Known about the structure:
The chain is an alpha/beta fold. It contains 12 helices and 8 strands. It folds into 2 domains: 5-183, NAD(P)-binding Rossmann-like Domain (Rossmann fold); 191-277, N-(1-d-carboxylethyl)-l-norvaline Dehydrogenase, domain 2, CATH 1.10.1040.10. Helix 1 crosses helix 2, helix 8 (190-206) crosses helix 10 and helix 8 (190-206) crosses helix 11 (239-253). The radius of gyration is 19 Å and the shape is globular.
Amino acid sequence: MEVKTICVIGAGAMGNGIAQVAAQAGYDVYMRDIDDKFVERGTEAIKKSLARIVKKGKISEDDAGKIVGRIKGTTDVKEAVSKADLIIEAATENIELKKKIFKELDELAPAHVILASNTSTIPIVIVGSSTNRPDKVVGMHFFNPVPMMKCVEVIKSLTTSDEAVKVAVEVAEKMGKSPVVVKDSPAFVANRLIVPFINEAVFALMEGIADSPEDIDTICKLSFGHPMGPLALADLVGLDVLLAVLEILHSETGDPKFRPAPLLRQMVRAGYLGQKAGRGFYDYGKK
Ligand code: 3HC
């Protein structure tokens, strides 16, 4: 099946990043969110990211304009879905919400359309079973910031067809990514490794093992060669996202090693969600 048009559900950090790399790859893109202000914010983020790429001389201003021109921001789900060959959902990590979205997408999308979820944790088989086309439901897990990170985990559930996996792999490759096919298991591979690592850094901070977030991050950057420390990464990804991943890992496996650090939970409750909120483990100035 040839994919020409991609619909991205959600214009947040992941959604707008996916819409951007899809448009950069030459696809026509619909980027849908529930409110105009989210669509506008997503479009602004894409323009900023493209401006950085123009500044590096990798694309021209003209190219950037054409890329933006291929992305149609909308709040109309019917319009967004009706012309798509592939839909990539990038909404909040909540099982009930994802089930509801996939049920609706299944009802609205033409029969040939493949439904992908950018979920970082929720089993694809659950998402697929809320549709009448579980064979066409696949995971495509991108990483933040999407324009920079090369990997895409392609998740094949018990019900996903080989054809759906093939399409997801081909599209990811056309986006310039390196897809890796993995099994449908809580948090798959990448988040099963990185999220407990970040959680342990929060425990270390909470227990006063190091004096500050900076000290913990410095240790990791200089000891492991990581481009950023775990607490700065937590702020980039979003503390609410991390908490959701940990809660699902914890409840799906029952393993106490995935228990969220109480400080992480408190920070989410306080609204200190990281860069997007202007404050997380670091202060980014008021948003
Ligand atoms: N768009 C375009 N270019 C971008 C960009 C964006 N959104 N973000 C960064 N860049 C470019 C910059 O222009 C710069 O380019 P240059 O080196 O050619 O000048 C380059 O990236 C480096 O950026 P900065 O100098 O601003 O900062 P850093 O050197 O710290 O790099 C980073 C930023 C790429 C984010 C790097 O710190 C990094 O790789 N961090 C780790 C990110 C990571 O681990 N992501 C995975 C998180 S887990 C996840 O997403 C899963 C989810 O399900 C939870």
